[in-house]
Amino acid sequence: MVVLGSFLPWVYTSLGSLSGVRGAGLWTFYAAMLGLAGALVPSRRVAAVQGALMAVPALVLPVWQVLHVLGLVGTGGWLPGPGLLMVFAGGVVAAGASRALWRGAPVPA
User: Fold this and answer.
1) Structural contact between residues 16 and 42, judged by C-beta atoms closer than 8 angstroms
2) What are the protein's UniProt keywords (predicted)?
3) Is residue 108 part of a domain?
4) Is residue 21 one of the residues assigned to a domain?
5) Domain-located, residue 109
6) Which pLDDT tens digit goes with each residue over 49-90?
7) What φ, ψ does residue 106 adopt, rounded to 5°?
8) 93: buried, middle or exposed (CB in 10 Å: 19+, 13-18, 0-12)?
9) How many domains, the chain?
10) How many CA atoms lie within 13 A of 42 on its CB side?
11) Do 83 and 7 touch, CB atoms closer than 8 A?
12) Which of 23, 27, 29, 48 would give a disulfide with 6, using CB separation of 3.0 to 4.6 Å?
């Protein structure tokens, strides 16, 4: 979700859309690659740490983007795009999976 959402539009305006890759989406894409590497590691603890490291920018950067745009123009003239929401949702999923891996709980397939 984070990889795909990083390339989709993050903000819609009356002048057009702003892609995530032109800003913070590039950093979330890099973090998603770290999360993908963590999914391939056989150690549960290492995978949990890498998933948590992926979840931090995937949760923080979309929230920062919304607060930044709200501070600039308020609530008029823009809408959050699907990329912004997908990256945030992917961060929530990664945080939950990291927590389950760290605790040793079985992760549903």
Assistant:
1) no
2) Membrane, Transmembrane, Transmembrane helix
3) no
4) yes
5) no
6) 999 999 999 999 999 999 999 998 888 889 999 999 999 999
7) -65, 130
8) middle
9) 1
10) 0
11) yes
12) 29
DSSP string, the chain: -HHHHHHSEEEEETTEEEEGGGTTHHHHHHHHHHHHHHHT-S-HHHHHHHHHHHHHHHHHHHHHHHHHHHHHHTTSSEEE-HHHHHHHHHHHHHHHHHHHHHHTPPPP-
Token pair 């590691």 in the structure block, residue: 41
- Would you place residue 107 in the very low, low, confident or very high pLDDT band (cuts 50, 70, 90)? low
pTM (predicted TM-score): 0.88
**Which two tokens mark 37?**
């590497």
Q: Are 90 and 9 in contact (CB under 8 A)?
A: no
- Give the separation between CA 43 and CA 71, rounded to whole angstroms: 42
Structural domain span for residue 96 = 2-103
Burial of 55 (0-12, 13-18, 19+ CB in 10 A): buried
| Residue 17, phi then psi, degrees to nearest 5 | -110, 155
